[in-house]
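Field: COMPLEX_INPUT
Field: COMPONENT_COUNT = two
Field: RESIDUE_TOTAL = 230
Field: MODE = joint
Values follow.
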Amino acid sequence: MPRSHGRRAALVHPDAGAIDVLDVLHALADPTRMTIVRTLRADPERACGTFPVDVAPSTLTHHFRVLREAGVIRQREDGNRRWTTLRLEELDARFPRLLDTIVSAYDRQADSANT
Amino acid sequence: MPRSHGRRAALVHPDAGAIDVLDVLHALADPTRMTIVRTLRADPERACGTFPVDVAPSTLTHHFRVLREAGVIRQREDGNRRWTTLRLEELDARFPRLLDTIVSAYDRQADSANT
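Field: COMPLEX_OUTPUT
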C-alpha cells in the first residue's frame, strides 16, 4: 500500500525516456505556461510564488501540474516552499533543440507584435 | 454583407503574419493532426479522403479545421474534392525551423518506441 505523505500528494514526474513530445507541445501551447518556461530559462530555480504571471493561485497550480506531468519542469518541496526547475538537459537529450526552437518562435512573435 | 457560397462556408485561413505560435503548438499536439502534417511533408497536395488516419469523417473534418485555422495547412475546394497543402514556406518564414524541429522530435520518439 502507498505510504502516506501527509497532506500533500507526492509530485509526479515522468522519466526522461517517457516524455511525450505531444504532451510537451500541449504544455507549451499556453501563454502562462510559456511565461513560466521563459522565466526558468533565465533563472534556473525559482520558488513558486515568484513567477511574473497574473493568475489565481489555483490556476497557477494547474499550469505547474501540466508542465510537470509533461516532463517540462521538475518541482521539489522544501519545507513550505515548492521550487521549480526546467528539465532542459533531459528535454534536449530526448528532443534536440525542441524547447529552444519553440521559445525562440514565441520570442520572435512577441518582438514582431511590439514593433 | 458576405456573399453566399452555397451550402459550404468559406474556408478561413489566417494571414501568414497573423499565425500564432501557440495555435500552431496546440494544432500539432495531437497524433492524428501530426500524421496529417507528416503525410503532407512527403506529398505536397492531397485530397482529403487519402490520409492514412483511422478516424470518423466528422472527426477528420475537425482536425483539418484546427490545422487550417492555426495556419498550418491551406485547403481549397475543387468541385466535390477538397485539397490540402502544408503552409511550410510561410511557417518557416515566420518561425524558422519550428515545424521541422517538431516533426523531427515526433519521428525520433516514434523510432525509439519501435526499437
